[in-house]
Each structure stands twice: as structure tokens, then as C-alpha cells.
Amino acid sequence: MSIPLKEIGQYRQRRTIVFMLLLLWGVLTSIQAKGAFTTAVTIDPPIPTPRDNITLKLSDRVGSACETNTITIANNTIRVDIYDYNDFGHFCIEIIPPPEEIPINPLPIGSYQVTITYASGSDTPREVGRADFMVKEPVTGSFTPVKPVKVVCQNLTTRKRTVIRNPGDFWDCQAAGLEIRPGDSVSQKVIGIADESK
């Protein structure tokens, strides 16, 4: 008994469709799993002061249109919980979102840790990203009646220094690149020209 060529063609077509659907499901599943483990966290500004508004930037991850974020701050820990309620009742397309920006109000001086967790459905939240930063007063200076030409900022503890040329009437050693930790000894050397107009 021979099978008509038309039926053979229809069978092959259905088999191809089923295969493509299974392949698509596998890709979406792997993308979702991968996205949960590729969250990069950037702090802006990198070294905030107690007067700065802070922005957490989440990037390098695959997301979903069904995500919600919960932010908690306690004991110098900032926790961002990402929950994806994508399940059989909510079909959401996996996407690569632009860097997500989370605003944080000014924080007191101290060391802080950012933890990003991810959960989907009834899964237990798991850590997918982490970053550390410090909030501290900037090391700044001004000098009158001299017009500064060069300022040498030196961390006497680490023996590192940064040179600021033509700083104007005000300068910030940390913003210029000098790394300073609480307790470090710092010196500033100002070279300039006397300016009676000041």
C-alpha cells in the first residue's frame, strides 16, 4: 500500500512545525536562564558624596515584559529583587532591555553593597549581580589670593598622587582620580601666581 505524496508532504510539514516550536521554546528558556545570570551593576556617580543622588544602572542581561522590581535599603545593603511572573498564564516576550536606571536618594557616609536577585514563578530568588561602593566627603580645596596653576593631591597612605593643572578657584582631588579611603592621610600642594584681584 502506497501513501500519497500529498500526505507525505503534509506529514513532513507538520513535523517541521513541531520541531521549530520545540526549538523556539528551548531558545526562549535558555535566554531567560542566561539573562538571570548576566546582570552588570554600575554606580553613578562612582564615588558619591552624602549630597549626591545615586543611580544604579543594570545592564547586560535579557529581560521580560513581565518583570517587576522591589528595592529595599537596610544595614548598608541595597537589594533589588527582580521578579518575573512569566508563566503559563502570562506569556511574555523575552527582550534585551536598555540599561535600567534605579534612582537612590542621597546616603550617609559609609560602605554599601548592592545585591541583585532574580526569581521566576515560584522559584527561590537567587543572586545575579553584586556591586560595592562608598559614600564619602570629597577632598576639595580652594586658595586665595593666589591663582592656582597646579595642584598636587597626594595620598600619603598609599603613596599615590594626582596632578590637577589650571584647576581654577576650586578643585576636587577625588574627581581628578585620586583614590582615598577613610583614614588615609592626604596632602595638597598648590603652585600658583599671586593675584591681587582676589
Brief account:
The protein contains 1 helix and 14 strands, in the order αββββββββββββββ. The protein is α+β, with helices and mostly antiparallel strands.
For the largest beta sheet, what order do the strands appear in spatially?
A: 4-5-8-9
CA radius of gyration? 28 Å
Please report the number of helical segments. Answer: 1
Could you tell me the number of beta strands?
A: 14
Taking the sheet with the most strands, its summary is: 4 strands, mixed
Low-pLDDT segments, ≥5 res: 27-36
Overall mean pLDDT: 76
N→C terminal distance = 107 Å
Q: Which class of secondary structure composition applies to the elements?
A: alpha+beta
In total, the number of domains comes to 2
**What is the helix/strand order?**
HEEEEEEEEEEEEEE
Helix share of residues? 10-25%
Shape: elongated
Q: What share of the residues does DSSP label as strand, in percent?
A: 35-45%
Topology:
Blueprint lengths: L4 H32 L3 E5 L9 E6 L3 E2 L2 E8 L2 E8 L9 E2 L4 E5 L5 E11 L5 E10 L4 E2 L4 E10 L4 E6 L5 E2 L13 E9 L4
